Amino acid sequence: MDDIAQKIVDAGEAGLWTGVERNLLSQLEQDPADKGSFHKLGLVYRQSGQLTKAAEIYARLSALDGEDGFADVLWKICSGNSGKDAREFGLIEPARFVVRRDFLSTDARDALLRLFEVKYPEMEELEVTLAHKNSDAEFKLDRSIRNQFGVYCKSDLEEIIQADVMKLFPAFCDALNVQPFLPGRHDLRLDYTPDGGFGKMHQDVGFGARLSYLYYFNRQPKKFRGGDLLFFDQNRDTGQPLPHQFTRICHEDNLLLVFPPQYYHQVTRVAALEPPLEAADSRLSVCGFIHPKEV
Ligand SMILES: [Fe+2]
What we know:
7 helices; binds fe (ii) ion; 16 strands; 7-stranded antiparallel beta sheet; single chain
C-alpha cells in the first residue's frame, strides 16, 4: 500500500507546509470568514505537529460556526484535553489521545536507558498483528509494514513505569471516553526503531487490549529525526481511516501517549542525523497494552 502519510510528512518537511501556510494565511487576511481555508490551515498545523497553532485555528472555526462539531472536538484534542467534553457529530471522527510530557522522573527514565542495554541482545524483529473479527490475532513478519525490534519484559518494566501509568488509569479512561473497566493483564514491551525503521498505519486490535500507550525516550543528545506518531481521522460510520488526514505527535524524550487501540496510527520513518545510528541512540519506546480483568 502506498504510504500517503509518509509522503505528506516528507513533502511537508521539504517546505510544502510553509508554502501552504503562507497562502492560507494570506487568503484568511482577505476573507476572515473563509471556513474552508481555516480547515486546511488546521490540517497543515496538525500534520506538521504544531498542536498549539492547530488549537487556535479550530477555536476560531468553532466560534465562527457553532455547528462545526469537527472543529469543536479538534480544538479540545489539540488543546490537550482529549476532546472529552466536545460535541460529537459529523461524518469525520478525529482520533482521541492524551499526551503527558516529562512523564517519568529522571531516575526512572535513566533506569530504562540502562535496561535497554541489558535487554538489547534479546530483542527480535517485531511481527505484524493481523486481526480478524471473531478470531485470535495472527502474527507474521512483514518488512513492508514494519521495521522495529523489541522484547516483552513485563517483570523488568513494571516497577519502572506501570505504577505511574496506573495511577492515572481512571483519568485516562475518563478523558478518552473509554467505558470504565477493571484492569487485568498488562503487557509491556521494550522497543527500538533503527535508522530507516517505521511502522505503517495500523490499529492495536485483535488481542483484547482496551487501552494502548507508548512511552518515548532516547539517549542525549538525540541523534535521529522522525519516529513521530500519526493519529488518523476516520469515517464515523464505516470506521475507515482517511490516510491524508492526521494529527502528528512529534517524537520527544520522556513523553507518554495514551489512546484507545481502535484508532489508526503510524510511526514515521526514523532517520539518523549522522549514520550509522547505534541501537542505543535510536528511537526507544515502551509499549503498554491494558486488558480488562477476566471474570
Ligand atoms: Fe500500535
